[in-house]
Amino acid sequence: SNDIGLDRGRLGQEHVVTFQRSGNKVLLVEPNYAYRAVSNDPQERQAVAQSFAQSVHWGFDVKAEENGKVLVDATSFFIQDAVGAVQAISRTKQGTYRLDASRCAFYLPRTKNFPQNTEVEVTVTLVGDQPGRYLQEVVPTPTAVTMRQHHSFVQLPELGGYRPRAFDPRAGINPIQYFDYATPVSEPIVKRFIVRHRLEKKDPNAPVSEAVEPIVYYMDPGAPEPIRSALMEGTAWWNQAFEAAGYKDAFQVKLLPPDADPMDVRYNIIQWVHRSTRGWSYGASIIDPRTGEILKGKVTLGSLRVRQDFLIAQGLVAAFEQGKPVSDAMMQMSLARLRQLAAHEVGHTLGLPHNYISSVNDRASVMDYPHPLAELKNGKPDLANAYATGIGAWDKVAIAYAYQDFPKGTDEKAGLDKILTDYIRQGLYFLSDQDARPEGSAHPQTHLWDNGKNAADELNRVMEIRRGVLGNFSENKIPPGAPLATLEEVLVPMYLFHRYQVEAAAKVVGGVFYTYAVRGDGQRICDPVSPADQRQALNALLATLKPEALAVPPNVLKLIPPRPYGYDANPREVFKGRTGLTFDPLAPAEAAAGMT
Questions:
Q1: Is 72 helix (H, G, I), strand (E, B) or coil?
Q2: Backbone dihedral angles phi then psi of residue 252, each to the nearest 5 degrees
Q3: Closest CA to 90 of 12, 8, 1, 4
Q4: What whole-number percentage of the chain has pLDDT above 70?
Q5: Less crowded by CB within 10 Å, the N or C end of the chain?
Q6: d(CA 397, CA 403)
């Protein structure tokens, strides 16, 4: 369930742990890597270690000992709610639950060893009462929630083989950070390094070289065709960025072989996950917090997402007629979105955060959230250019910063600085979540699900498309034989087609241009949006509140009857009405006006 936050393959927390013997106990201890002394002086390191708390995750009783080897009973350690499912159910107000140990057991088919990791899986049952709707949707008997939880003990690589690379806020790569108390007082005590996979050229002096060991991602065979091919194609786009950074075939995507196990830490996995409702997809990684090295990339793609894209395309271009083939444009747009989605989530597992300003540079990054770009041709919406194809110009910059291998004798810092100054001169930008998601965010060009350089111009353009789509909305938006009441599900994304562009235009009012400027790089520091541009955005916003913009066309109101027997509405997919069974003609206007 995406709503509760419990998905197939969801990664839990990571902990670096050691086993420490103390009398008849073996403690599972997590050192505190947030505070260190990177020093050859053992006394200096000890002073830091003794200044900050550690965490003991478990205490095992020694059951037997032979030739220096210790046997412990770890049953109680594994038979626990290790991922916090009880808290997740409680936090989402789905009931009060507890672990029932009598209904828990080891799941031996998924308990096994690999060369670099040991895997233990258990069947866990939570019991409780007053289950909420989300829980009732996904559990056959909601008072007994049974799931499998998995424990991975991963051998960390030896220190010294991987070279950490310095973090720069302009580079568009995620960081790790820690306090280093061995730092001279004249230097910053907080150290920041990027997260990335280990990648080296076979020939570091060659402009283009194969990798010593390429980065390979494996696709879940459970994804059906043509979806699987689209996902693999979008994932493979990343090789374009690695080629630009001087590698040949350093990034590859393959179908997971039948004899391979996705729990083997050596496999980077793209997993196709089913849920009861549509929800987010995720790109996450198992990271060595000592260095920032990515040990395993793990992508979760929700299978219902593509149906929402198909629904949007359906509202824009569908013309279902009895006995006639339907336009292929809807499926083509949906597959184009899947390619972009796969590239986006895999990008996260390569170390890249979101870049929500890339839409002003002609969709320069797959790490943005793209709204389908519908264009009017002969007065009708056209989806041929709905989503960009291939890796963007910005993505190549970020990959170059993270992975480019410099020849021996090269000043790496100077080489990395050149990558950044070059993209600044090219007019590329990077701004992320903190600049786009909060209601108080202020940059006039940094938004989710927007298009174009000017938010107000794009809002006016989107409103024109919306006006045409609503004016031509008819029963042929659903297949023959479908209940007419289901037209509402198609109407919702069309009526609210402007919703994200409204949010973008609103941030122009009172907006401020800025960059992640550092001293001496010449970037724009902080400038308010001009009064003329603010007024233009305000006028575009006010136009969305005009009665003719808010009113549902009369012909549409006559098309939507009450829901038929057996077709209960999903509350998240229809308007929240106030007129009982009948379609509320003011509910859409209330939603849109409140949004603006």
A1: strand
A2: -135, 155
A3: 4
A4: 100
A5: C
A6: 10
- Residues ≥6 apart with Cβ < 8 Å to 165: 193, 194, 196, 292, 402, 412, 416
Q: What is the pLDDT of residue 277?
A: 87
How many helices (DSSP H) and strands (DSSP E) are in the chain?
17, 24
| Average pLDDT rounded to a whole number, residues 37-50 | 96
At 167 the pLDDT is 97
Structure tokens at 265: 């830490």
Read off the tokens for 217. Answer: 């991602």
* 401 membership: H or E segment, kind and range: helix 393-403
HEC secondary structure over 167-216: CCCCCCCCEEEEEECCCCCCCCCEEEEECEECCCECCCCCCCEEECCCEE
Q: How far is CA 211 from CA 113, 166, 396, in A?
A: 28, 22, 17
User: 């708390």: which residue's tokens?
Assistant: 53
Cα 480 to Cα 578: distance, rounded to the nearest angstrom: 29
Pairing type for strands 526-528 and 512-514 reads antiparallel
Q: Which of 437, 451, 439, 449 is nearest to 510 (CA)?
A: 439
Residue 486: predicted pLDDT: 96
Distance between CA atoms of 441 and 443, rounded to whole angstroms?
A: 6
Q: What's the whole-number mean pLDDT along residues 503-527?
A: 96
31 Cβ neighbours under 8 A, 6+ residues apart: 16, 18, 49, 54
Tell me which residue has tokens 């997260």. Answer: 195
Q: Which residues pair with 64 in a beta bridge?
A: 71
Which of 208-217, 317-326, 443-452 shows the lowest mean pLDDT across its residues?
Answer: 317-326
Residue located via tokens 């000992």:
65
Distance CA 335, CA 218 (A): 19
pLDDT, tens only, 348-361: 999 999 999 999 99
Pairing of strands 293-302, 196-197: parallel
- Between CA 291 and CA 449 the distance in angstroms is 34
- Cα 157 to Cα 16, 54, 116, 200, 523: the distances in Å are 12, 22, 9, 16, 39
Residue type, 545: L
**b/e code 293-304 from CB counts within 10 Å (16+ = b):** bbbbbbbbbbbe
d(C-alpha 329, C-alpha 313), whole Å: 8
**Cα–Cα distance measured from residue 471 to residue 539, given in angstroms and rounded to the nearest whole number:** 23
Task: Please give the Cα distance from 212 to 202 (Å, whole number).
Answer: 5
Please give the model's pTM, rounded to 2 decimal places. Answer: 0.95
How sure is the predictor about 530, in pLDDT bands with cuts at 50, 70 and 90?
Answer: very high
The confidence band for 489, taking pLDDT boundaries of 50, 70 and 90, is very high
The amino acid at 476 = N
What percent of the chain has a predicted confidence (pLDDT) above 90?
Answer: 90
Query: pLDDT tens digits for 304-326?
Result: 999 999 999 999 999 998 888 88
pLDDT tens digits for 370-426?
A: 999 999 999 999 999 999 999 999 999 999 999 999 988 899 999 999 999 999 999
Is residue 28 within 8 Å of residue 72, measured between CB atoms?
no
Structure tokens at 331: 């499926």
